[in-house]
Amino acid sequence: MDPLIPLTVAVPLLAAALLAAFSPFVTRRVIELSSIAVAAAVTAMCLLLLSGASEAPLVYWFGGHMPRDGLALGIAFVVDPLGAALAAFAGVLVTATLVYSWRYFDAVGVLFHSLLLIFLAGIIGLAISGDLFNIFVFLELLSVAAFALTGYKIEETGPLQGALNFGVTNTVGAFFVLWGIALLYGRTGALNLAQMGETLAGGPVDSLVVTAIALLATGFFIKAAIVPFHFWLADTYATAPLPVCILLGGVVSELGLFAFARVYWTVFDGALASSHEELRILLLAAGALTAVVGAVMSFAQRHLQRMLAFSVIAHAGLLLVGLGLMSPAGLAGAAVYLLAGGLVKASLFMCLGILQHRLGGVDELRLHGRARHMIFTGTLFLVGGLVLAGIPPAGTYAGKALLEEEANLLGLSWVTPLFVLVSCLTGGAVLRAAGKVFMGWGPPPGHSGGEEDAQVGQETTVERDRTPAVMFVPALVLLTAAIIIPFVPGLLGGSEAAAVAFADRPAYAGSVLLGTRHPITEARAHEWTVPTELIAGAASVIGAVALAAFTLRRAPLPQKALGKARTGAERVVGGLTKLHSRHIGDYTAWLTMGAALLGGALAAALL
Amino acid sequence: MTSRGRRGLFLTGAAGLALLLLWGTAGLPDFGDYQHLYGLTLNAESVAATRATNAVAAVTFDYRGFDTLGEEFILFAAVLGTALLLRAQREEEEEPPEDMAPDRRPPHDSDAVRELCLGLVAPIFLFGVYIVVHGHLSPGGGFQGGVVLATAPLLMYIGGEYRGLRTVTPEAPLELVKGAGTGGYVLIGLSGLWFGTSFLDNALPRGNAGDVISSGTILALNLAVGMAVAGGLVLLLTEFLEQTLVLRSRSRK
Amino acid sequence: MDATAILQAFVLLLVAATATGVILTRDPLAQAITVSFFGLLLAIAFLAFQAPDVALSAIAVGAVALPLMILLALAKIRGGAE
Fold it and tell me: Taking Cα atoms as reference points, which of A413, A429, A419 lies closest to residue A396?
């Protein structure tokens, strides 16, 4: 088992280097097949690690530098079930993307495959590393690969602008993380997460600790697109090549939140144990704001890729609410929701790719009714919308139900209505698009073109009359997986047990620094099929359908009935849209302000 | 947002952030007052344990060699990404950029610049090799030496020998050098897994501290990084030069 | 205050002044030169703080590679825009 741990990162990296070095000498088919084989093999390795780590976390020291008398000298990978599951999930998505993009680009080179494998190695390293600086290195590794991949369409200005916004804001984020690491290193003299946590737990919570967590949170939240650090994401995801979006939307945004959770529960949890209540309020507020802004903006888009991009932001908000519950059950619910939501978003982006491939565009108005003949893709997209809204008993529903049950136990009764609202809006947006594009419902577009089109990327412009199986099958598989998640034996209970271990800082420190074995005990997840949750789930779906139907109606409603509410909503959406100005200067200004506010709020909460 | 609004928002935020940073930095130990066991332990034992007289190299290539692997791949990914972004565009293939001022000749290269640059190529190359292979003994190493190595071809370009530069730095072998250096780091890591206890464990004889051939894998890893960085940077430079110099080399033909 | 501390403080002030200079330079071409100078001073600062390894990296990247990339990118942009 042990040698597998470094190989999960070493194998994809070595393969990427070899592919790049030997690309002039082999055919494209060889490159495609071998990269798919490598990604699949790495996924299998991660699944093996997951099964190994489900008994107790596995600790691996690089370079043979074991800790001496509790002092970590080298770098460790600490494989816990949640980290291994995230790594395996990334492996699945990368494999699916490689299969999917078999036919996508007209001129796809070896660069795409090499970068995807590096990207995978970065995610795996981030997921299972037990060293703060090492986490930073892997975060940067996957970011650099992602910057290049999002700018793939160099002929157009939109994608380049998106990639530039992505690069600038995320590099600023990396700088915040680095500064936070430097402060913590100055205080603790360590980079090993467990060691830092042990040292901080015995010390005071002062200006340095508060600033360090503020800087780290800012950096990670920029990567995770938490309001007001989220502006870059919509521009980037709306213009990146769709195969890249599968990965970005499926797993990348969530990595920032994962890194935050990992660092919080290994480094800060001991020192800040007495401030849980204050931190909870702060994180819940940030999460709720992000979820609502993302959901409202998602519903307001007509460019489908941009609509899903805002959906990604809304989901990041819901996940932050899950983390913000500050409890193992909250973590477990967030993990299930991350997995199910990631799968369904990846599948929806794949559907957009099929639309792009067949009809040469992804604009709701321009595609109005043009996809009536695409029955299979239409069904997939429609079901995807229902799953996104959280239709029972799909995985997205189960994740939300677990979170809502935990929130209710904590006396936070507003969480359920928030989740319902966000699900209505994000699911309703997809259902509305399905109705327009695949059924031709709703008023036919009065005009087409306009400002949005400048941002629309087009890899392929020709209309084609067949959907390649390599595009359809991965989308179907991922969506099916998103639905059946709660019925995988042991998955819900396993994530609860894994979350308990994830949040147990002393046990983590013991297994890393002293080599003691802390078995992961079995645990039961919350009940997720209780009537209240089923009602909430049904309300989400009915609400989503109703919202979609409302916007798809042919006859205009009497102005008086809804006049006021409507202008109010339009004003809110208009104001929000204005804020998303696509101006990098605006984004940086918001980012600076956000960092200062977060720092101030944390100082107020923790001291 | 208006530019005034943006500036106001930024300056307010920046002031708050500056306060936060100052406040946080105040919690650091005094300058030069180092008490941590980690650094003290490494200072005490690293030379004896790794036989590298440069403790920085011992940390970056031995104790924390896995970080350096990631960093090397960040550079690798950046080079790949640049190649991806600067690849020949469709319209460029059909319609190569033309010299917009056909009557303008490129300035005559001064003989002094030319002689000086070309004369420096060999010494700089040697200096780069020196820095790479002495990384475990004195400041420097694969990364710094690799950059120095990459400046040797650059001098040829400044000296006006762009075509000569392309002859001594053809693309396919450079890809191989870069790939061998980058992949070599992983392979050395795997050798530790095979012959030793774990990935990146030292599997070579350490030798005597102070010798050029000593410190085991630290030297080997430095060589790998040197190759990767030199190959990668020269490729990066040629990518840029290919884009920018179409004009100049065309008018010379 | 001993001589080293004075040297360090002096170099830090120089770095801060040059950094401000880089920001105040509005023309990208001129900025490539000022940023190179800034890189060189940063390297000297690292040397003054007894970090010769980092100083070497700073010279290589900050004073040579980064300005060069900026210059080449500018050449590309202007070549296309003319």
Answer: A419
Span A20-32, average pLDDT: 84
Q: Which two tokens stand for residue B3?
A: 């530019």
Given its phi and psi angles, is residue B33 left (phi above 0), alpha (psi -120 to 50 degrees) or beta? beta
DSSP H helices in A189-303: 193-201, 207-224, 231-239, 242-247, 253-263, 276-299
DSSP lists the bridge partners of residue A363 as: A303
CB-CB neighbors (< 8 A) of B187 in chain A: 14
Interface contact flag, A208 B24, Cβ < 8 Å: yes
Residue A319 contacts residue A337 (beta carbons within 8 Å): yes
State phi, psi for B145 to the nearest 5 degrees: -65, -35
Q: What angle do CA A138, A142, A145 make, to 5 degrees?
A: 140
pLDDT tens digits, residue range A201-251?
Answer: 989 999 999 999 999 999 999 999 999 999 999 999 988 989 999 999 889
Tokens of A62: 């690089």
Average pLDDT over residues A450-474: 65
* B192, closest residue in chain A (CA to CA): A63
Give the number of other Cβ atoms within 10 Å of residue A173's Cβ. 24
Closest CB to B27: pick one of A111, A206, A588: A206
Give backbone dihedrals phi and psi of A107, rounded to 5 degrees, phi first.
-130, 75
| Distance (Å, whole) CA A294 – CA A6 | 37
What mean pLDDT do residues A256-273 have? 95
Q: Are B221 and B188 in contact (CB under 8 A)?
A: yes
* Closest partner CB to C75 (pick from B57, B139, B244): B244
Distance in angstroms (rounded) separating the CA atoms of residues A327 and A375? 44
Q: Shortest CA distance to A77 belongs to which of A178, A145, A9?
A: A9
Q: Return all residues near B11 (Cβ < 8 A) that are at least 6 apart.
A: none
Residue A431 CA to residue A425 CA, distance in Å, equals 10
Instruction: Report the gap between the CA of B66 and the closest CA in chain A (Å).
Output: 7
- C-alpha torsion sign, points A214, A263, A339, A500: negative
pLDDT interval class at A362 (50, 70, 90): confident
Dist. CA A540–CA A563, nearest whole Å: 25
Domain boundaries defined on chain C: 3-81
- Residue found under tokens 């799953």: A387
The region, left, alpha or beta by phi > 0 then psi within -120 to 50, assigned to residue A241 is beta
State pLDDT tens for residues A390-408.
999 999 999 999 999 999 9
Quick check: do C and B touch, 3+ CB pairs under 8 A? yes
**Residue A158: band (very low, low, confident or very high) from pLDDT cuts 50, 70, 90:** confident
Residue C72 sits at the chain B interface (C-beta within 8 Å): yes
| ipTM score | 0.92
What long-range pairs does A601-605 form, CB within 8 A, spacing at least 24? A601/A282, A602/A210, A602/A213, A602/A214, A602/A217, A602/A282, A603/A207, A603/A210, A603/A214, A603/B20, A603/B23, A605/A275, A605/A278, A605/A279, A605/A281, A605/A282
Q: What is the distance in angstroms between the Cα of B240 and the nearest Cα belonging to chain C?
A: 6
Chain B residues at the C interface, defined by Cβ less than 8 Å, are 54, 56-57, 97, 100, 131, 139-141, 143-144, 147-148, 151, 154, 233, 236-237, 240-241, 243-244, 246-247
pLDDT per residue over A342-360, tens digit each? 999 999 999 999 998 888 8
Gap from A299 CA to chain B (nearest CA, Å): 23
In chain A, where the domains are located:
4-606
- B176 to chain A, any CB pair closer than 8 A? The answer is yes
